[in-house]
Design brief:
Layout lengths: L3 H13 L19 E4 L8 E4 L5 E2 L4 E10 L2 E7 L8 E2 L2 E3 L6 H13 L3 E12 L4 E10 L10 E8 L11 H16 L5 E4 L2
Parallel strand pairs: 4-9, 8-11
Antiparallel strand pairs: 1-2, 2-3, 4-5, 4-7, 5-6, 5-10, 8-9
The structure holds zinc ion.
The site of zinc ion has 8 residues, from loops.
């Protein structure tokens, strides 16, 4: 039986989330193309998309988003988004992890793709659970090797900001805001540590 908490989560989720994060979104089997049905497989404890013909079970699990906090002295590099969601808002370079790469490689790749920035990747900095949209965000600190950055196709512009210059009202995502707040707080304290946070 489905616990009531999961049922309630599903109802809330489908009311507010974009389609790609909506549970029960797999309508056809990825192997044979037949329609799927949502049911609890034997030995499982929640509903899965089960193929009505070949009986394959298609699992839906959280996606990993990886990015960096590229720093140059007391400044941090932000990208203004050239894509939805949050077009025109500022973000740290980040994106979905690809198969075949580590989280660190993904963070470095996204920094090159979105900001054209040359960096030395440093330690993992924030681990942010965004349960509402089924994502885990990981940000690494990074040191800019030079100031020869340039916007990639997904960015309108990239720019260095001191703490007092950060456009807090135009930050694209709560995970980015949280990471920036942790970054500047640690920097003022004189030491960086890893921050694990749940984003409501
Ligand atoms: Zn099938």
């Amino acid at each position: 039986m489905m616990p009531w908490r999961l049922l309630r989560y599903r109802d809330e989720a489908t009311a507010t989330l974009p389609p790609m994060y909506t549970p029960r979104s797999i309508r056809h089997c990825k192997l044979c193309g037949a329609p799927t049905e949502y049911q609890v497989p034997a030995g499982d404890n929640r509903e899965r998309a089960v193929c009505s013909v070949c009986k394959s079970v298609h699992y839906e699990n959280p996606l990993n988003v990886v990015g960096t906090v590229p720093a140059w002295d007391d400044q941090v590099l932000l990208c203004r988004r050239n894509i939805e969601p949050r077009y025109g808002f500022w973000t740290l370079p980040a994106g979905f992890m690809e198969l075949g790469e580590t989280s660190a490689e993904g963070a470095q790749r996204e920094t090159i793709e979105e900001a054209g920035a040359h960096i030395e990747l440093l330690d993992l900095f924030t681990v942010l659970n965004v349960v509402r949209v089924g994502q885990l965000h990981l940000y690494y600190r990074a040191r800019l090797l030079d100031t020869e950055f340039a916007p990639g196709p997904e960015s309108i512009e990239v720019q260095l900001f001191r703490e007092e210059q950060i456009p807090w009202d135009e930050i694209a995502f709560r995970t980015v805001r949280e990471t920036l707040k942790c970054y500047f707080a640690d920097r003022r304290r004189g030491g960086f540590e890893i921050h694990c946070t749940d984003i409501a």
